[in-house]
Amino acid sequence: MGKVKLNHAPPTVMEARYIEETRQLTYQQRFEKLMAIIELSCLLKSAKKYSKSK
Description:
61% helix, mainly alpha
């Protein structure tokens, strides 16, 4: 993958850009990206939740 940069544009433009970047990835890179998302999701689900009121 290329250099990471922040992108600010309308949602339709961002979606098209994301799809194009995904098409350029190999199947191995797509799988690794998916596994990272799943791992992060599991970590967020199991994280302790804190509330401001005590």
